[in-house]
From TrEMBL:
Compartments where found: Endoplasmic reticulum membrane; Golgi apparatus membrane
Recorded topology in the membrane: Multi-pass membrane protein
Gene Ontology CC terms: endoplasmic reticulum membrane; Golgi membrane
Keyword Zinc-finger assigned: no
InterPro entries: Palmitoyltrfase_DHHC, PFA4/ZDH16/20/ERF2-like
Protein name (database record): Palmitoyltransferase
Transmembrane segments: 37-55, 67-84, 183-208, 228-250
Species of provenance: Chloropsis cyanopogon
EC number: 2.3.1.225
Stated family: Belongs to the DHHC palmitoyltransferase family. ERF2/ZDHHC9 subfamily.
Alphabetical GO biological process terms: protein targeting to membrane
Span of domain Palmitoyltransferase DHHC: 137-271
Region named Disordered: 316-393
First-level EC class: transferase
Length: 393
């Protein structure tokens, strides 16, 4: 006969998380789905540094100091480590409300706002929250069904509410929020130093070569291992990449240094949250640059509330074919037999004989519709209720 077996299937929570994110390494790596520009960032950094270490660094280490490639390697490794930490981490995504929580919030909103007449626009869903003796408005997110915490915002690209949302950065392939902002700042800071470093020593390399063999001969020189390539092309390529990177990355670093000193986010600066017409002061600023920098860059890092690698257990029912052991006088029961026939077959298997018809109680309503607690368990005889009568043996 067919037996249904319940088997538990292990499912990680990251597999069921809403939003537009991708996960790798069993939920350990979390990124946005749009990662094309992130790969371009890796290509530019790795390509420029590879050319610098392959050609200019060898010459400068001999002519000037062996510390030049060492310091460049330290900057390169630090920039790559902070980039990967920013790109592969949870920026501070806030979980969406469960159905029960969403229903409770809806009831609370209806009780607060009352019944809105038909045709009128309902009032905005806002809660007032006091921070440092100043009122801050908490807005309701219609996607996540929650009132967002202070400084949180919903990212339209990742489709998640992010705590202390700064901005979505396509260059790192992730949102920048409370849990990875410091690594993002350290990344652009170290990348700025690395770009200035490579740009400066590229010029020093050309200057030293020009003093020895002349500027024109330097432009015509080709490396011995790659005679088809000109050092001019390689050096100019590095200089151009570094030049345009200086304008963008160094300027971005200066802007975020200004924001860190004020304990402000890019989202707040763009919206003018603390510099609008009302001239509302920033309640999160300590009024001291050192304290603001220490809070943003050195404060305790909150743990992720997603629990991406938590286990969700789901039951799967699988049918397996098996055979029942029968006694010498046992016979298979037809599939269309009634409750009384099933009881009669059970008696025949015990003593090998069929009791007379008068001894078998007729089925009644109480037999056909038994409560759940009175149904037969495996290995247990089906005993009729006392009001029907018992079989005489």
């Amino acid at each position: 006969m067919s037996v249904m077996v319940a088997r538990k299937k292990v499912v990680r929570k990251w597999e069921k998380l809403p939003g537009r994110n991708t996960f790798c390494c069993d939920g350990r790596i979390m990124m946005a789905r749009q990662k094309g520009i992130f790969y371009l960032t890796l290509f530019l950094i790795l390509g420029t540094c590879a050319l610098f270490f392959a050609f200019e660094c060898r010459y400068l280490a001999v002519q000037l100091s062996p510390a030049i490639p060492v310091f460049a390697a330290v900057l390169f490794l630090f920039a790559m480590a902070t980039l990967l930490r920013t790109s592969f981490s949870d920026p501070g995504v806030i979980p969406r409300a469960l159905p029960d929580e969403a229903a409770f919030i809806e009831m609370e909103i209806e009780a607060t706002n009352g019944t809105v007449p038909q045709g009128q626009r309902p009032p905005p869903r806002i809660k007032n929250f006091q921070i440092n003796n100043q009122i801050v408005k908490l807005k309701y997110c219609y996607t996540c069904k929650i009132f967002r915490p202070p400084r949180a915002s919903h990212c339209s690209i990742c489709d998640n509410c992010v705590e202390r949302f700064d901005h979505h950065c396509p260059w790192v392939g992730n949102c920048v929020g409370k849990r990875n902002y410091r690594y993002f700042y350290l990344f652009i800071l170290s990348l700025s130093l690395l770009t200035i470093y490579i740009f400066t020593f590229n010029i020093v390399y050309v200057a030293l070569k020009s003093l020895k063999i002349g500027f024109l001969n330097t432009l015509k020189e080709t490396p011995g291992t790659y005679p088809s390539m000109s050092l001019t092309v390689l050096t100019v390529l590095e200089v151009l990449i570094c030049f345009f990177t200086l304008w963008s990355v160094v300027g971005l670093t200066g802007f975020h240094t200004f924001l860190v000193a004020l304990n402000q986010t890019t989202n707040e600066d763009i919206k003018g949250s603390w510099t609008g017409k009302n001239r509302v002061q920033n309640p999160y600023s300590h009024g001291n640059i050192v304290k603001n920098c220490c809070e943003v860059l050195c404060g305790p890092l909150p743990p992720s509330v997603l629990d991406r690698r938590g286990i969700l257990q789901q039951e799967e029912s699988t049918a397996q074919e098996g055979s029942c052991l029968r006694g010498p006088g046992a016979q298979g029961l037809p599939a269309t037999q009634g409750p009384g026939q099933a009881q009669e077959g059970g008696m025949k298997q015990q003593d090998g004989s069929i009791p007379p018809p008068s001894a078998v109680p007729a089925p009644s309503v109480s037999d056909t519709k038994m409560p759940e607690e009175k149904q037969r368990m495996p290995g247990e005889l089906l005993v009729p209720s006392p009001d029907v009568g018992q079989a005489e043996h």
